[in-house]
Specification:
This protein has 356 residues and is of the alpha+beta class. Strands 12-13-19-16 form a 4-stranded mixed beta sheet. A 3-stranded mixed beta sheet has the order 3-11-10. The longest helix has 15 residues.
Length: 356
């Protein structure tokens, strides 16, 4: 049965790229294996995202993906040639996907043999200050994950040992298989299980990793925090996920949590703060000094207020990102005194005679 990637992500066929991205992020956080989610479901949504997030692949999927509702053309449907798709990999957006997945049921679940092995994606949570989320920054974190062996650099061979040709695949790194399908015999290739695709086997295995090429260890990761990031957003760090022998490493996803700030909050690229004023300053106008998010001072002229609440806009003093910046919005409020002296009461009585 053909897969419906739109249903997998829960989006409409006319969904924008932004809507597709948001749907993927929500589902990925819910189903990620490291969070106790369903690994099979996680693979389904990452596969769907790898296609729908790429305009070219999405068009190809829209044109051909729904043409085989029964898993393939019916008898007599014509001589459509599927061989051009054999082993064609779809990579990008942190997901590796083989076109053979679309027809996996027809091939007994076999995947494309030329597909490069890829390590698991992993995710971590990092809490940052509000200031860091606005200005950007760097964080150094320690994580425990499967990484390449430092002794053999992932080869699995003892340093300096001689290598010999793998007899199972004759040094090709691939084993050819011929399968009978509804379209006739089709040739497929898979990674040699003996040499794991390298084509050669060491005379002596690395003693540090016992020839596996990878091992679980603690690593220090430098996380770059983009300026203007919101809480709940993910930072993708390609190649910093878990390693696999004879393949490429997965990706690391960093979920950002932002601490609240006593003065500022953020809406889009705008920074917002509250500024209470004494009644006299509100009526007569004043100049106040405020501290900005980058620890600088700013003299703000407040004109006489005509209402109890007004907003001042300081342009360019908000969040700065590539291509533009937001503004600083100061919500000014006139505060009423809790207690009045006799002199103040008399002054107010005098104002009443003027109709104020």
């Amino acid at each position: 049965m053909a897969k419906n990637y739109y249903e997998t992500l829960g989006v409409d066929k006319k969904a924008t790229q932004d809507e597709v991205k948001k749907a993927f992020r929500k589902l990925a956080q819910k189903h990620h294996p490291d969070k106790g989610g369903d690994e099979a479901k996680f693979k389904e949504i990452t596969e769907a995202y790898s296609i729908l997030s790429d305009e070219k692949r999405r068009k190809e999927y829209d044109n051909y993906g729904q043409s085989f509702p029964g898993g393939g053309p019916q008898p007599g449907a014509g001589g459509f040639d599927f061989s051009g798709f054999g082993g064609q990999g779809f990579g990008g957006q942190g997901v590796e996907f083989d076109i053979s997945d679309l027809f996996g049921d027809l091939f007994g679940g076999a995947r494309g043999g030329s597909r490069i092995k890829r390590g698991r994606d992993i995710s971590i949570d990092v809490e940052v200050t509000f200031k860091e989320s606005v200005l950007g920054g760097r964080r150094s974190v320690l994580i425990t994950k499967v990484g390449k062996c430092d002794v053999c650099s992932g080869s699995g061979a003892k340093p300096g040992t001689e290598m010999h040709t793998c007899k199972t695949c004759n040094g090709n790194g691939r084993i050819r298989e011929v399968r009978n399908t509804p379209f006739g015999q089709m040739e497929n290739q898979r990674v040699c299980p003996e040499c794991e695709g390298s084509g050669s086997i060491p005379n002596e295995k690395c003693t540090n990793c016992q020839g596996r090429g990878v091992l679980r260890k603690e690593e220090e990761i430098n996380v770059v925090i983009p300026a203007g990031i919101d809480g709940g957003e993910m930072v993708r760090m390609p190649g910093l996920g878990e390693a696999v022998k004879g393949g490429t490493s997965g990706d690391l996803y960093v979920k950002i949590h932002v601490k609240t700030h006593p003065t500022f909050r953020k809406e889009g690229l705008n920074l917002i703060m509250q500024l209470p004023l004494k009644l006299t300053d509100a009526l007569l106008g004043t100049t106040v000094t405020v501290n900005t998010i980058d620890d600088k001072t700013l003299d703000v002229k407040v004109p006489p207020m005509t209402s109890a609440e007004e907003t001042l806009r300081i342009r360019g003093k908000g969040v700065k990102v590539e291509g533009g910046s937001g503004d600083l919005l100061i919500h000014v409020t006139a505060t009423l005194p809790k207690k009045l002296s006799n002199k103040a009461k008399k002054a107010i009585e005098d104002l009443k005679t003027e109709g104020l």
